[in-house]
Design goal:
With 192 residues, the protein is mainly alpha-helical. It is 67% helix and 0% strand. GO terms for molecular function: [acyl-carrier-protein] phosphodiesterase activity. It holds the Pfam family ACP_PD.
Length: 192
């Protein structure tokens, strides 16, 4: 899961808890003593969510359908694809729009970790969380991550698979999402 899904799975908490979930990928190591307790709790929640998502049978099945030798990269792409489905399915939900604005407010006010500092302003200014509803935008974001990795852009190479497997990936997401809400005791949202 990426920013939007992590936000939904933690929106019931305080602003600091939500902020910790949003910036967790930019925080390395297990020593979180430099962070306020609620932010550290959010970082831990994000990491637990990642573990649950990565180990879920539907995520494992989706990765198994990825082109041979691309399973590792498929996991990165799927994190953004899950956000795509969530953003698309809830695009007209006023609660989602309020949550997105809350996330942007937090990301503007608080300093992002160094690893995310150059990306966060673009995320907010270009409204990525809303734009994930557009599959083409999501694929460009996936390819953008691939440009930051060493070697050939293996993430960009996944687009044909993501397009061909789109219907099954949505079914995977629709099965995965309620399981994550239940496992994390997050307030449920109704997917259309």
């Amino acid at each position: 899961m990426n920013f939007l899904a992590h936000a939904w799975l933690s929106h019931h908490g305080s602003d600091d808890f939500l902020y910790g979930n949003l910036i967790a990928d930019g925080v390395k190591g297990s020593d979180l003593s430099a962070w306020p307790a609620s932010v550290a709790d959010g970082i831990r929640h994000h990491r637990r969510t990642d573990t649950l998502v990565d180990g879920h049978p539907r995520t494992r099945a989706a990765r198994g359908r990825a082109p041979e030798g691309r399973s590792r990269y498929a996991g990165i792409a799927l994190d953004l694809v899950w956000d795509h489905f969530l953003s698309r399915l809830l695009a007209n939900d006023p609660t989602q729009q309020a949550l997105i604005q809350r996330c942007y407010r937090l990301l503007k006010v608080q300093q992002a970790p160094e690893r995310l500092a150059s990306m966060v302003p673009a995320l907010v200014e270009q409204d990525w969380l809303t734009r994930y509803a557009d599959f083409d935008f999501t694929c460009r974001a996936i390819a953008g991550i691939g440009q930051r990795l060493s070697g050939p852009n293996r993430l960009a190479e996944l687009r044909p698979w993501l397009e061909a497997d789109y219907v099954q990936l949505e079914a995977d997401f629709r099965s995965l999402w309620p399981d994550m809400e239940s496992a994390l005791q997050a307030p449920g949202i109704r997917l259309p």
